[in-house]
Design goal:
There is one protein chain. The chain has two domains: 185 residues, no CATH class; 210 residues, no CATH class. The chain contains 14 helices and 14 strands. The protein is elongated, with a radius of gyration of 32 Å. It is a multi-pass membrane protein. It comes from Prosthecochloris aestuarii (strain DSM 271 / SK 413). Belongs to the ABC-4 integral membrane protein family.
Length: 410
Amino acid sequence: MKTRELVIQASTSLRSNLLRSWLTTMGVAVGVFSIIAVMTALQAIDQSVATGLSSLGANTFEIQKYPATFFGGHGRNRFINRPDITYDEGLTFKRLMQGKAKNIGLKISQSGNQAIYENRSTNPDVTLFGADENFAVANGFDIDTGRNLIENDILYSRNVIIIGHEIRNTLFPNGENPVGKSIRMNGEVYRIIGVFIKKGAAFGQSQDNLAAIPITRYIDHIDLKRSISITVEATSPKEYQATIDQSTGSMRVARGLAIREDNDFEFRTNESLVESFRDFQKTISIGAFIISFMALITAGVGIMNIMLVSVTERTREIGIRKSIGAPATSILRQFLLEALFLSLTGGLIGIILGIGAGNLVAMAFNLPPLIPWLWIVISIAVCSAIGVSFGIFPAYKAAGLNPVEALRSR
C-alpha cells in the first residue's frame, strides 16, 4: 500500500471515532501548551531585560535601599527595616565621589500621578521623579525640546517640570509646543521647561510616561519620607568595578556605618539584574518541564490505550486485509501513522495556544509578538517521539495478528 493511501486510511479511521481522538489529543496539547507558553513568555521577558539593561547603560549602576529583586523569605524584613537613603546622604556621597565618576544623579519617584492641562488629562499612571540636574544624563534621558534641570532649579526648589513623550502626546495632541505651558499635578502647578526624547519601554514599563521636577521640591511638597536612589556612571568600562568599590566606601561614610557594620544599601547593576532574572527563569522553566513531562507521559499512555482499543475493535478488518495479501508492514505503518497523527495534532494545538498565551505576556511588556521557533521544533520532535514510542506496541500487536483467528472475530 502506498504512503498516500496509508495516510488516507489512517485519517479515516481516526475520524470514525472523532470524540475519542480529540480527547486523546488534548493530553498532548496540554503538555505542549505549558512549555510553549512558558518559553514564549520567558523570551519576551528576556528581551525586556535586555532592553532595560541597554537603557541603564553599560557603565552605569544604581545605589538603593532594596536589592534589584527579592521575593519574600526571612530576609525581607531586613531590607524593609533599613533606614531610607536621605537626600543629605546623597549630597554627601556626591561630594565624596567628586572626580571619581563621570556622572552622579539623585532621584526619587512615585507612580500613580495624573497630569492635567486645561480640559485634557493623562491616565493616573504617570511616574513622577524628583531629580537633580544630573538625573537625565546619568539615566540616559535626552532632551527633545526645551532644557534640562539646572543647579538653580534644585537650589531654589522651582516649580518647573520636564515631561515625557507620552504625556506630551496626550496633553498637546496637535503638535503644540508644550514648553512654557503650565500643567497641574498632585494639586501643584508646574511650568514645563522641557520634553524628554522618546525612549520606549524597559522591563515592561513605559519610559515615556514620566515627568521630572526638582528633587528639593519633591521632598518639600510631595514626600519627605521616601528613600532616594543614586545613579552612578563610571568614566569607562575599565573603571566600572573600581567605581563600584569607591562608591561602597563613600556610601558607607555617607551613611555613618562603623567598620564592623554590614552595608545597609544595595547595588543595582546589569549583572545583578541578569542573575535575578536567570534564577527566576530557571525556577519557572523547571516547573514547566515537570508539568509538560507529566502531561506528555499521561497523553502517551492514553494514545497507547486508544490504539489497543482500536486494534481490538478492528480485528476482523485486519484479518480481511491480511487474507487478501496485505503485508504486516502495511498494517504496522497504518497504526503507527494513526498514533503519530494523534500526537502531532495535539502538539500543533498546544503550539498555537501556547504561542497565543505567551504573547499575551509579550503584549504586557510592550514587546512585538514572538515565535519560539526552537521550542516549536523541539515540541514537534517530542510529539513525534511520543506518538511512535507509545504507538509501537499496539502497531506490532495489530501486525502480528493471525489472519484466520482475526477473521473469526465479531
